UniProtKB/TrEMBL annotation, chain A:
Pfam families: MoCoBD_1, MoCoBD_2. Signal peptide: none annotated. It comes from the Bacteria. It comes from Rhizobium oryzicola. Residues 211-290 form the Aldehyde oxidase/xanthine dehydrogenase a/b hammerhead domain. This is Molybdopterin-dependent oxidoreductase.
Automatic annotation (TrEMBL), chain B:
InterPro entries: 2Fe-2S-bd, 2Fe-2S-bd_dom_sf, 2Fe-2S_ferredoxin-like_sf, 2Fe-2S_ferredoxin-type, 2Fe2S_fd_BS, Beta-grasp_dom_sf, Diverse_Oxidoreductases. The keyword DNA-binding does not apply. Keywords: 2Fe-2S, Iron, Iron-sulfur, Metal-binding, Oxidoreductase. Residues 1-76 form the 2Fe-2S ferredoxin-type domain. This is (2Fe-2S)-binding protein. CDD domains: fer2. The keyword Iron applies.
């Protein structure tokens, strides 16, 4: 696993080099620059670094990662408020503007929010930035009072000199602090000194989310703004064949029709209803082009064919094939994971006001620099002439790591000089997603006469997201995400062969989807490990335990989940329990799911028990929320979801055909956390990756039916 | 021109008969708390109250509205049940992205108005029309119980 992490970093490092060799650990500009900035902007904002701003309005923390609901604004604010000796009610948070030099995620090599990376990337730099600000303010107060800074106390943003009953607020001392030298050696608090980190502090972003006052991208209103909605070619590569512009323009409220190339048309109206009605009146017809005959079956047939040939070798230790050939028990199987849509509840949208000399963009994006560049490229404006106002997001799940919707909007609107909000209908959103790739996995394993795993092979066949999204990270034909969790498992195993075959699907765009590589690989590995246990007549829990001699943290979460789930206790007829174990996103997680399969093959999810070790915890309630929500997101897809195509077009158009789990379908979810002071692991995606394997294994336990293709409710024929 | 009484305030609205209330609220009146999620009454993000009834604003066209008062999330706190539900939502830390929560809260208020002490099964029945992609369902149930006993 360690090896895998290192190699992954190596791949990612290539991305940075390709995008200009930007390096950043912590931005602490020198005091001279701060003074210059101060002089230019009037009195008293103290901006010691990229993340802290203090003025007479109070303390503003600049959020390098974007809020998609995962709670990062709260966690980031907690990390900084801890070192600033503030409480959360004393800080405001603000989205960072696009600026790679200040806000690049040092592990993603982009100003991006993804991969459950935010806390891992910010754990040191945000605390250091906050501590630097505090040190400079304390030093400034000490200088004013002519005392030793170490004699001063700070609490809730008030600096006190106990010897002389003097006190200063941060706002009062901020102008002086700007002239203090930036500290070199910043000593951070030890975990035993934390008063905020580790507490169930209330989220900073939710009060406005329960009374309708919060603004997402889709809620932006600007003076003179109009509303547009679009139609994209239903089949990738298709072109407009005909449209009735006169009928569209005759629709009340329609203002304009705009086109981009041959494959995108939008109608601008006084409101969304006019734009929608106008688009319908256009009565678009399309030439479908080369992908007009693509179906899911034709795509899968090509993957099956491609998977018969060896790919790029990821891991080749101790001749796994020879070990399998000699094994007492041999297993082999094909697993398939479908295309999936992100379908965040806020449909794609952005608001653009393009002028001759600049543009403004209001959008909720996980990649603000890419968003800025998309508008610059489409309009011919310099990137610095494009102001990006990043917004809270109504979910993203990876969808807003792509900027196709911004690029298309900018191309469509490049000659429109009034502000336009471009809102995708749910139908356009679902049928023009950048989907979670379809994966086709061939696995084989051998067990010796005692039932011990002696060799394992795994060939992953599927799209490379890296090759498109961060080409520099796609080196030597290896997509580090596609194989994440396949080559390295939590288990003791020495003879392992893993290879990767890149096979891009016809007519489909692919991208990151919550849980990324591990979501598919953990399903495959954990299902197959269960198959090994069954083939050698071993208990699935005991079989796993025996293979964890080198991995105490994984064993600990597995044992905890087993104890809490009551593993081994007798179950009613038709009930089954399934296990999934993983190390992914820097966190250890074991999941035991109990289900009931009815006589009609209907699956009822009864109880989901999660044990997680994500190292040091910023906010345990956020961990709990991400476990609950991530699990439901994963179970929803594992139960119900797959994207299919007919004649090149996606069949699923809305939530009536792409079923999302509802409140009456969720299991009881119990989360148990192992607390320690290890480095923080990611939690946003971990539970999602643990859903499908446990469900497939529970179905096997309940019915004896081994299902190797998702979604599971479909496969059972219920 | 039609008069809509929304959260106790009269608005004169010029809109076609077939225009859904969702877009009237959002794009004409600028009340953006009511959300667009699907447009086909599958997700519940646009739930508002028409009279005492929870309805999907995406399916409620102008010609379906007579003189019934309309309540949206922006006016939810004016009613004591609404205020309790919002408080419970915060106390139980229900919200993640929050996009569905206007609709969830409006559905929950309608439930508690007709059934002050709902069981889990009754909550499931009443709330099954509201999708949450972040998966906050477990806490929605807890928050409704909390609001019921507040």
């Amino acid at each position: 696993m360690i090896k895998n992490l290192h190699s992954r970093r190596g791949f990612l490092k290539g991305t940075a080099l390709a995008t200009g060799g930007i390096l950043l650990s912590l931005q602490l500009p020198d005091a001279g620059r701060t003074r210059a900035a101060l002089a230019a902007s009037g009195p008293s904002p103290f901006v010691p670094n990229a993340f802290v701003k203090i003025d007479d309005q109070g303390v503003t923390l600049i959020m390098p990662h974007t809020e998609v609901g995962q709670g990062i604004y709260t966690s980031s604010a907690m990390m900084m408020a801890e070192e600033l000796e503030l409480d959360l009610d004393q800080v405001k948070v603000e989205a960072a503007p696009p600026d790679m030099s200040k806000y690049m995620d040092p592990n993603l090599y982009d100003q991006a929010t993804g991969g459950s990376m935010s806390t891992r990337s910010d754990w040191m730099r945000l605390r250091q930035a906050a501590a630097a600000a505090r040190i400079m303010m304390v030093s400034a107060a000490a200088a004013r009072w002519k005392v030793d800074p170490s004699t001063l106390k700070v609490e809730r943003g008030i600096i006190r000199n106990p010897a002389a009953s003097q006190q200063l607020t941060y706002a009062e001392i901020a102008p002086d602090a700007a002239t203090q030298p930036v500290p070199k050696d910043i000593k951070l608090k030890a975990p035993s000194q934390f008063r905020l980190i580790g507490t169930r502090a209330k989220r900073v972003d939710t009060a406005a989310k329960v009374n309708g006052s919060v603004l997402y991208g889709i809620d932006i209103r600007q003076p003179g703004m109009k509303i547009a909605t679009l139609a994209l070619a239903p089949v990738k590569g298709g072109k407009v064949a005909s449209m009735d512009e006169a009928a569209c323009r005759a629709t009340p409220g329609v203002l304009d029709i705009v086109k981009s190339g041959d494959d995108a048309v939008a109608v601008i109206g006084e409101h969304m209803w006019a734009a929608k009605q106008g688009l319908e009146a256009l009565a678009l017809t399309w030439d479908n082009g080369v992908n007009g005959k693509v179906t899911l079956d034709t795509i899968v047939a090509k993957m099956d064919e491609a998977s018969k040939t060896q790919g790029v070798v990821i891991r080749n230790d101790k001749n796994a094939q020879a070990a399998i050939d000699k094994a007492a028990t041999k297993l082999s199987a094909v697993y398939q994971s479908p295309f999936l849509s992100h379908s965040p509840l806020e449909p794609l949208n952005c608001t653009l006001h393009i002028r001759a000399d600049g543009a403004e963009l209001w959008v909720g994006t996980q990649v603000p620099v890419r968003a800025q560049k998309a508008v610059a490229d489409a309009t011919g404006l310099a990137p610095e002439k494009v102001v990006v106002h990043n917004q809270l997001m109504g979910g993203a799940f990876g969808r807003r790591l792509d900027i196709d919707s911004i690029e298309i909007a900018a191309k469509l609107l490049k000659d429109i000089r009034y502000p336009v909000k471009m809102v995708w209908t749910r139908e356009q959103d679902m049928t023009h997603d950048y989907y979670r790739p379809y994966y086709y996995d061939r696995v084989a394993a051998g067990l010796d006469a005692s039932g011990k795993l002696v060799g394992r092979t795994h060939r992953v066949t599927g799209s490379s997201i890296y090759a498109r999204w961060a080409a520099a990270a796609f080196k030597n034909g290896i997509d580090p995400d596609a194989v994440d969790g396949a080559a390295e498992t939590p288990y003791d195993e020495d003879a392992v062969f893993t290879d990767y075959v890149r096979q891009e699907p016809d007519g489909m765009n692919t991208s990151w989807w919550r849980g990324v590589g591990p979501t598919h690989n953990v399903f495959v590995i954990e299902s197959f490990v269960d198959e090994m246990a069954a083939a050698s007549k071993q208990d699935p829990l005991e079989f796993r335990r025996k293979m964890l001699s080198r991995n105490p943290r994984a064993l600990a979460v597995l044992n905890l989940a087993a104890e809490k789930a009551g593993w081994g206790q007798k179950l009613a007829a038709g009930h089954g329990r399934g296990i999934s174990l993983q190390f992914a996103f820097g966190s250890y997680l074991a999941h035991i799911l109990e289900i009931e399969v009815g006589k009609d093959n209907m699956i009822r999810l009864l109880r989901s028990v999660i044990a997680v070790d994500c190292g040091i915890t910023i906010n345990p309630d956020t961990v709990l929320a991400q476990m609950q929500g991530g699990m439901i997101f994963g179970l929803s897809a594992a139960m119900f979801n797959r994207i299919t195509l007919t004649d090149g077009a996606v069949d699923q158009t809305n939530f009536d055909t792409y079923r999302v789990m509802r409140i009456n379908e969720v299991p009881k979810i119990e989360v148990y956390q192992i607390h320690n002071n290890e480095a923080p692991g990611g939690v946003g995606e971990a539970a999602t990756a643990a859903a499908a394997g446990a469900l497939a294994n529970a179905i096997f336990a309940a019915t004896g039916n081994r299902i190797r293709s998702l979604p599971l409710a479909d496969a059972l024929g219920a | 021109m039609k008069t809509l009484v929304i959260n106790g305030v009269s608005h004169q609205v010029e809109a076609p008969d077939d225009m859904p209330l969702l877009w009237v609220l959002r794009d004409i009146l600028g009340m953006t708390g009511t959300k667009y999620g699907c447009g086909i009454a599958q997700c519940g993000a646009c739930t508002v109250h028409l009279g005492d009834e929870a309805v999907r604003a995406c399916q409620t066209t102008m010609d379906m509205i007579d003189s019934q008062p309309i309540t949206t999330i922006e006016g939810a706190a004016a009613n004591s049940i609404g205020a309790k539900v919002q408080a419970a939502w915060l106390e139980k830390e229900v919200v993640q992205c929050g996009y569905c929560q206007s609709g969830q809260i409006m559905s929950a208020i309608a439930l508690l108005s007709s059934n002050p002490k709902p069981s889990d099964a009754e909550i499931d029945d009443a709330m099954a029309g509201n999708i949450c992609r972040c998966g906050t369902y477990v806490r929605i149930r807890e928050a409704i119980h909390a609001a019921a006993s507040a």
